[in-house]
Structures are given as structure tokens and as C-alpha cells.
Design goal:
CATH topology: Alpha-Beta Plaits
Low-confidence stretches: none
Number of helices: 2
Number of domains: 1
Shape: elongated
Strand content: 35-45%
CATH architecture: 2-Layer Sandwich
CATH class: Alpha Beta
Oligomer: single chain
Number of strands: 4
Strand order of the largest sheet: 2-3-1-4
């Protein structure tokens, strides 16, 4: 993990509507594992989707890159919520 004081804490919310993308989502998260503080995933079979919250401590550009890559996957939505400082 970067010891850079420019790091931000963020929660990346991920909604997977296309279950065939789960492996791609996990692969991306693995690529950014050094920045991940914690992760919680919840299947929601009644709606046919999965919801994942990922907490990261990383530079803003890194957080944006991960969230953007996730959101570009077909059937996956992603949004980052950043701390103010």
C-alpha cells in the first residue's frame, strides 16, 4: 500500500446484474488488492443480482481507475464515494 499522504479512503459500491461477470470483477479487485481494506458481498437472488462494497485506501486516480474499469464491464455498475479529506 502506498504510504502517500495523498491517499483517500473511499467506498466503491458495485452491483453485478450479469453473474457471468463475477470472475472479471474478482480479477479486477485482485489487481488492486494492495489498496483494499475490506470487502462485503451480498447476493440478492430475489432480484438476480449481487451487491459488493469495497473499502479502499488509495490515491484518487487509483480509486477512479478501479471504479471506472468495474463500471465498463457489461452488466456491472460501480460508483465511488470518497472521504472529504
Amino acid at each position: 500500500m502506498d504510504s502517500n499522504t495523498d491517499n483517500r479512503i473511499a467506498v466503491i459500491g458495485i452491483i453485478i446484474e450479469d453473474k457471468s461477470q463475477a470472475e472479471n470483477v474478482n480479477s479486477l479487485l485482485h489487481q488492486y488488492a494492495e489498496y483494499i481494506i475490506g470487502r462485503m458481498g451480498l447476493p440478492y437472488p430475489q432480484r438476480g443480482l449481487s451487491i459488493i462494497s469495497v473499502i479502499v485506501d488509495a490515491p484518487s486516480d487509483t480509486i477512479s481507475a478501479l471504479s471506472g474499469k468495474l463500471g465498463r464491464l457489461q452488466g456491472v455498475s460501480s460508483q465511488a464515494l470518497y472521504t472529504k479529506a
